[in-house]
Amino acid sequence: MGDEYYDIDAILAENQKVQCTFKVNVPDMGHLAGGEDRDIKSGAKIQIPMWMAYILIYSDYADFNIPPPFSSRVRNALDAEARSVRLTSLVGQGGMWYTFGVMIMRLLNDEPALEMSNILVKTFRARLTEVVDQAQHFASIGASTGGGSSGDQGMAFREGLDGTERELFALAQWSVKLMKKWHESTETSRR
Amino acid sequence: MALPIALRTSVIPQELELVACEQLVDIIPLVAMERTAFISGAYGPLRPPAKCKVPIWMAVNLKMKKKCHVVPPDWLNVEFLQDRLTRETSEPQFSELPFRFAEVAKVLLDVASDDFQNPDKLRSLLKDIREARQAKSREGLAKLDHSELSLPNLCALEINEIRPFFIRAMGVLTKLTKDPEGQQMAY
């Protein structure tokens, strides 16, 4: 996750749309709104992908609203129990909730940005232990019996992992697997 | 790089075992051998029944050919490990153990279990210690923040196990944390 130029995750996260309110009239750009109008009128609210929203917001052509994945409804849910929120259903399958959050955070100033950062950090830390626990669990029981043996709640949690968490899950699982393999091998059998 | 992601971030347990096998261990040789030069140094002479210090890889090799007895290191016995296990379960911090105890213990118990008094008990103690320590590093994970992590007395194998995802998780946290000064420099 990050803002590096070649970072695929960042590129994917930039596809998320934010709602922008235009402050100026933009001629001949009506197709962005998907409507029939030829021009964008000042005050029009249009969903713009993140990569385009940047320049519009920095150039002061438009304002933006905090997108739904970070709305107060979601914030309340995260406050209540971060582990039961399905991040993928907020940003779509394979979505990058955290990366998107960082992008929004960078667009905000002082107080709201700090608040945003707190939400992201708090959510990440609350979910991290569960991510690693589940990864360890799956590494130790092996992939074949994985599906049905654990509860529905664990299943729902895994399906709700965002891209960044998935990566961590895979890392933890791999490292536990290596350890397990090493512990089970014996010196005498190797020669 | 063509290496799998997991191998880029960390060495594998087998490699750590190889490193640990450079450590010296006492053996009682059953064959005589002159002092011999190896790449890592000169060892010997072996004069039964006098004790001699050789690297673990050499002890393993001799042991497999039944040409020596391994003298257990002073920390690899039931009393010492029992004591450490008690501390491990009663104190919040990691107890002090040799940095590469897990690797050394496994190799020696694998090839020279007949030189130990109670190898099964040792194995189960080591397993208990490992599990107690794992529970602690899991707690460490919950306290993780973006700038530092201090888990003193963590041993080589444990560091290696948690390294990939601890690093990644800290990297993510760095990104998520709003740092006013860092922000200024970025733009």
TrEMBL record, chain A:
Gene Ontology CC terms: GINS complex
Parts forming coiled coils: none
InterPro entries documented for this protein: GINS_A (IPR021151), GINS_bundle-like_dom_sf (IPR036224), GINS_Psf3 (IPR010492), GINS_Psf3_sf (IPR038437), PSF3_N (IPR055221)
Pfam family of the protein (one): PSF3_N
Domain DNA replication complex GINS protein PSF3 N-terminal: 6-57
BP-aspect Gene Ontology terms: mitotic DNA replication initiation
Key words, A-Z: DNA replication, Nucleus
Complex formation: Component of the GINS complex.
Protein name: DNA replication complex GINS protein PSF3
Lineage start: Eukaryota, Fungi, Dikarya, Basidiomycota, Agaricomycotina
Gene name of the encoded protein: PSF3
Automatic annotation (TrEMBL), chain B:
InterPro entries: GINS_A, GINS_bundle-like_dom_sf, GINS_Psf2, PSF2_N
Main localisation: nucleus
UniProt KW Membrane keyword: no
Record bears the keyword Nucleus: yes
Recorded superkingdom: Eukaryota
Residue span, DNA replication complex GINS protein PSF2 N-terminal domain: 13-71
GO cellular component annotations of the record: GINS complex
Domain GINS subunit per the UniProt entry, residue ranges: 75-171
Keywords (A to Z) from UniProt: Chromosome partition, DNA replication, Nucleus
GO terms for biological process, alphabetical: chromosome segregation; DNA replication; double-strand break repair via break-induced replication
Intracellular or extracellular location(s): Nucleus
Matching CDD domains: GINS_A_psf2, GINS_B_Psf2
Quaternary structure and interacting proteins, as annotated: Component of the GINS complex.
Family in the record: Belongs to the GINS2/PSF2 family.
Name by which UniProt lists this protein: DNA replication complex GINS protein PSF2
Species of provenance: Steccherinum ochraceum
Gene name for this UniProt entry: PSF2
